[in-house]
């Protein structure tokens, strides 16, 4: 069945046949490269159809490669609008686009709806399992060989092994999660409206809790507040006194990855709206109707009732990535470690991007600071011109890409020091204050800390990697990816550099907060309109753009639909 079904995908330069020698599973078929191709195109295997995978595909020149996408989800989801789906502000199908439609106009692109179960980077193949429900798990597994592997499988919700989370909480990661939450909210109201309930039971059912005060938790609380006080209040007026919306946060503030001003604005707005923010509380256990948590300040255990809990405390590693990391000796990390060209460390021709990956660059900066300290032989805090040059040469030898870093816009401070003409003057003591240089480096270091797990990072990485692949001619000479130009030892491709374009936090009641490039902060109604325009423009297709705008307009005119489907 699998062979017949798949063979339709592979015309042209590839053939498909069952490989009896495969040790993955007795029945697994292997999608192989053609053994004797005249002009075989290299196969890029992309795992995942999310932000990173789709952004990679959209910019890739697919005429140069044979591209195969493997993902259990045959559509792309615009995740920033998932909280809006929970409240019915936008419909689920308005923020999804079929992956087949996205690649419709591209040549040489195949898609298989399957989960990657195992990555074998030594033999350059992955084991996949179709997701179709009617298939018997394991019986229809197949293997796909690759020349280049692009891993973009994202991450999964992290429960931190807290008891009861899997059983009693909702996550907000996938489109199904958002739809389940939407149904669950209506269920809570309908149950609370049953005539025989006590006040306590009603109050418990209408106690909505979000664990996690990051952007997702905060946006969900804001959407829920709008749904309740703009729409449900008209349908269930008697139940309004029983409604409670609570955000539990382990840190001291909500939205703590945003500028402090935004964090304070959000807290004050939530206070005005009656959304209770409990900061400094660590959840110990989730029970069927209650949350057990510990207040950090008093050390006391507190019980909070709940009718529904959304767990949104961060992300964890997907099993297939954890297994792969074990194989390649990266077991102590949360995400796959790559270099600045997104190549997975310790593997050939394997790239990782988006939430499942992390770029390692910290060591470089620590090393650079250390080299400068060593160069300061007499510990005077200053270097002579000769010492400085020696140090710089030693850094360049070890890290040829250092100049590229230093030239980045946000490293002007460092450049100022390097460009100081005195620094290069021979002889006398100078000039370069080691402490000052280290201070400048620490600023750089702060910029280069692990990148946030956001769509923005994933999309930029996808675009960057496809640009590298598009420069195919150069890749042919050294096909493992970025080239080293002989002689001066520098990479021909620039390393990936993240450009932060700002971030939004919609806070409900037609108000939003935004952190914009250049340390600008904007809050209020006008920011909400900026949010509408940015999110409409960022949609993956004209269809979803039109649907999202239509849903927003529909909500303005008719309100949200609270029917339980
Ligand atoms: P994903 O987009 O999660 O895609 C992973 C893909 O891999 C999926 O297609 C999945 O089906 C597939 N996959 C999973 N397992 C396998 C497997 N075994 N084999 C093959 N394929 C597999 N970021 C922002 O920048 N701004 C925001 O406003 C914002 N809001 C968010 C709101 C919510 C509710 C959530 C959940 C996230 C939000 N994010 C936001 C974060 C953003 O969605 C993620 O950072 C982004 O999705 C990461 O992209 P990715 O491609 O790495 O992973």
Features:
565 residues; disordered N terminus; five-stranded parallel sheet; FAD/NAD(P)-binding domain; 28 strands; single chain; nine-stranded mixed sheet; binds flavin-adenine dinucleotide; 3 domains; alpha/beta
In CATH's first tier, which class of the largest domain applies? Alpha Beta
The averaged pLDDT comes out at 83
As for the number of domains, it is 3
Global structural class: alpha/beta
Q: How are the strands ordered across the major sheet?
A: 1-2-9-8-7-4-3-10-22
Let me know the number of strands. Answer: 28
Distance between the termini: 35 Å
Largest sheet: 9 strands, mixed
Question: Which term fits the overall shape?
Answer: globular
Contiguous runs where pLDDT drops below 50 for at least 5 residues: 1-24, 426-431, 484-489
Ions, cofactors, ligands: which are bound? flavin-adenine dinucleotide
CATH architecture of the largest domain: 3-Layer(bba) Sandwich
> Helix content range of the residues, please?
25-40%
* Rg of Cα set: 27 Å
How many H/I helical runs? Answer: 20
CATH-defined fold name of the largest domain? FAD/NAD(P)-binding domain
Share of β-strand residues: 15-25%
Topology overview:
Elements: H1 2-7, E1 16-17, E2 29-31, E3 43-47, H2 51-59, E4 66-71, E5 75-77, H3 82-87, E6 96-98, H4 99-102, E7 109-120, E8 125-130, E9 142-145, E10 148-151, E11 156-157, H5 165-168, E12 169-171, H6 175-192, H7 199-205, E13 207-211, H8 215-235, E14 244-248, H9 260-273, E15 275-278, E16 281-286, E17 290-295, E18 301-305, E19 308-311, E20 315-316, H10 319-327, E21 336-338, E22 350-352, E23 357-359, H11 362-375, E24 382-384, H12 385-398, H13 402-407, H14 412-419, H15 421-424, E25 429-433, H16 434-447, H17 455-470, H18 472-477, E26 503-508, E27 511-516, E28 520-524, H19 525-537, H20 542-558
Parallel strand pairs: 2-9, 3-4, 3-10, 4-7, 10-22, 12-19, 13-14, 13-19, 14-15, 21-23
Antiparallel strand pairs: 1-2, 5-6, 7-8, 8-9, 11-20, 16-17, 17-18, 24-25, 26-27, 27-28
Helix pairs in contact: 2-17, 6-7, 11-12, 11-16
The structure holds flavin-adenine dinucleotide.
């Amino acid at each position: 069945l699998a062979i017949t079904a798949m063979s339709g995908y592979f015309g042209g330069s590839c053939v498909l046949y069952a490989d009896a020698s495969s040790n993955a599973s007795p029945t697994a078929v292997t999608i192989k490269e053609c053994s004797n191709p005249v002009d075989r195109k290299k196969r890029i295997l992309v795992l995942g159809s999310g932000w990173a995978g789709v952004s990679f595909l959209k910019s890739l020149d697919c005429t140069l490669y044979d591209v195969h996408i493997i993902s259990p989800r045959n559509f792309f989801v615009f995740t920033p609008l998932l909280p809006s789906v929970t409240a019915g502000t936008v419909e689920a199908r308005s923020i999804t686009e079929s992956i087949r439609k996205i690649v419709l106009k591209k040549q040489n692109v195949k898609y298989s709806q399957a989960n990657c179960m195992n990555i074998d980077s030594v033999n350059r193949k992955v084991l996949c399992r179709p997701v179709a429900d009617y298939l018997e798990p394991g019986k229809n597994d197949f293997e796909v060989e690759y020349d280049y592997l692009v891993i973009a499988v994202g991450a999964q919700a992290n429960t931190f092994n807290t008891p009861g989370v899997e059983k009693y909480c909702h996550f907000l990661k996938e489109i199904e999660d958002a739809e389940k939450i939407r149904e669950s909210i209506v269920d809570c109201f309908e149950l609370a409206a049953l005539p025989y309930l006590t006040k306590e039971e009603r109050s418990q059912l209408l106690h909505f809790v979000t664990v996690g005060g990051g952007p997702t938790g905060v946006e969900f609380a804001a959407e829920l507040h709008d749904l309740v006080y703009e729409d449900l209040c008209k349908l269930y007026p008697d139940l309004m006194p029983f409604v409670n919306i609570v955000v539990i946060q382990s840190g001291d503030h909500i939205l703590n990855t945003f500028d402090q001003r935004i964090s304070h604005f959000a807290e004050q707005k939530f206070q005005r709206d009656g959304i209770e923010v409990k900061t400094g509380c660590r959840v110990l256990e989730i029970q069927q109707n209650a949350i057990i948590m510990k207040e950090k300040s008093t050390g006391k255990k507190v019980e909070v009732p709940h009718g529904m809990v959304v767990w949104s405390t961060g992300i964890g590693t997907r099993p297939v990535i954890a297994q792969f990391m074990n194989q390649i000796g990266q077991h102590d990390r949360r995400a796959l470690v790559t270099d600045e060209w997104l190549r997975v460390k310790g593997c050939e021709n394997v790239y990782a991007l988006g939430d499942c990956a992390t770029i390692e660059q910290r060591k470089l900066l620590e090393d650079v600071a250390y080299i400068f300290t060593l160069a300061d032989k007499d510990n005077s805090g200053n270097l002579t011109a000769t010492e400085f040059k020696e140090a710089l040469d030693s850094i360049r030898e070890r890290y040829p890409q250092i100049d590229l870093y230093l030239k980045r816009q946000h490293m002007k401070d460092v450049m100022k020091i390097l460009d100081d003409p005195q620094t290069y003057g021979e002889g006398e003591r100078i000039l370069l204050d080691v402490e000052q240089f280290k201070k400048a480096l620490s600023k750089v270091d702060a910029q280069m800390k692990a990148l946030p797990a956001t769509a923005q990072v994933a999309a930029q990485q996808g675009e960057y990697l496809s640009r590298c692949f598009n420069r195919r001619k150069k890749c042919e000479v050294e096909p493992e990816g970025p080239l080293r130009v002989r002689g001066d030892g520098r990479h021909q491709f620039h390393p990936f550099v993240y450009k932060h374009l700002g971030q939004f936090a919609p806070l409900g009641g037609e108000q939003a907060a935004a952190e914009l490039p250049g340390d600008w902060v904007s809050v209020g109604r006008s920011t909400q309109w900026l949010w509408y325009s940015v999110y409409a423009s960022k949609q993956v297709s004209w269809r979803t753009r039109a649907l999202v705008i239509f849903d927003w307009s529909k909500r303005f005119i008719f309100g949200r639909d609270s029917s339980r489907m």
